[in-house]
Write a structure and sequence with these properties.
Blueprint: E1 2-7, H1 11-22, H2 24-31, E2 35-41, E3 55-56, H3 60-63, E4 68-73, H4 81-90, E5 94-97, H5 100-117, E6 121-122, H6 133-140, E7 146-152, H7 155-167, H8 171-180, H9 189-192, H10 195-209, E8 219-220, H11 228-236, E9 239-250, E10 253-264, E11 278-283
Parallel strand pairs: 1-2, 1-4, 2-3, 4-5, 5-6, 8-10
Antiparallel strand pairs: 7-9, 7-11, 9-10
Length: 288
């Protein structure tokens, strides 16, 4: 039996629970293990729910449980997520997370602890949605010298820009639609001001260079100043506007930025629309 603990039981945490429950037979077929959720950390009790008996309120009940093999962190933010993840790794448990803020701020340190303890620290879902970019960079392209990584890394802003481009909506109307559909948070600042994309390109740049990249040092400009006039000019020039996170590697130096850019029709990311992400990697041997 392979036992899992989930930290935080909101939308993401409950989704992890459902995947393990509904796809349990498939997971066993592919891993050779019976996988079960043994404990759930949350401040709520969930009385009457099927997982009520699994809920704990003290992280120590998970850290000190030697029967728990892996921890899935779905809390978000950097604290106490960092402390909880660090302690889980130190206790010899595997950890997986989609928390980009955590990985951008503490990823290098957590990877070092995981290596020392001979456990895994996985964060594939922290960048690019369902695009398997983390393993691509670290495993498939392990022998590559990277020249540039460029991406549309935020589905919310890409949806807004797509609406502005295709339907002529202004920024506020497109944002409102995104919020109604659940694509944008009630407070969309992290998305529309580029902070989310900034953290993600910092993670990718760190993996490409093998060094910690401080996201706070990356020039970041969001899409709040883009208006319909910008798209009129873009269409006249047969271009589109996308929010790019970009990192270039030249002569041992890293140059990175986040900003809306004009994109030509023959660019690989031109056709990435709606809520979708897209990432372009250029290496010294494989090209783009």
């Amino acid at each position: 039996m392979f036992n899992v603990a989930i930290l935080g039981f909101g939308t993401v945490g409950s989704g992890v629970y459902e995947v393990i429950k509904e796809n349990n037979a498939l997971l066993k077929q592919k891993t050779g293990e019976d996988i079960a959720v043994k404990k759930i950390l949350d401040i709520r009790d969930f009385p009457g729910s099927e997982w009520e008996s699994l809920v704990v309120h003290d992280i120590k009940e998970i850290i000190e449980d030697n029967d728990i093999d892996a921890v899935v962190e779905t809390m978000g933010g950097t604290s106490p997520a960092f402390e909880f993840v660090r302690d889980a790794l130190l206790s010899g448990k595997h950890v997986t997370t989609s928390n980009k803020a955590l990985v951008a701020a503490h990823g290098t340190e957590l990877l070092k602890i995981a290596k020392e303890k001979n456990v895994n620290f996985f964060f594939e879902a922290s960048v690019g949605g369902g695009i398997p970019i983390i393993r691509t960079l670290t495993e498939s392209y392990a022998g590559e010298h990277f020249k540039e990584i460029t991406g549309i890394l935020n589905g919310t802003t890409n949806y807004i820009l797509t609406k502005m481009d295709a339907e002529g909506e202004d920024f506020e109307k497109a944002l409102s639609t995104a919020q109604e559909l659940g694509y944008a948070e009630r407070n969309p600042e992290a998305d529309v001001k580029g902070h989310d994309t900034c953290r993600k390109i910092a993670i990718l740049a760190s993996l490409a260079t093998g060094k910690e990249v401080n996201f706070e040092e990356i020039y970041t400009e969001g899409i709040t100043k883009i208006d319909t006039t910008d798209f009129e000019y873009a269409k006249h020039m047969k271009l589109s506007i996308k929010l790019f996170g970009d990192s270039k590697f030249e002569d041992g130096m890293l140059y990175a930025f986040v900003a809306p850019v004009m994109v030509e029709r023959d660019h690989p990311l031109y056709m990435v629309n709606d809520v979708f992400n897209g990432i372009m990697v250029e290496g010294n041997m494989l090209g783009k």
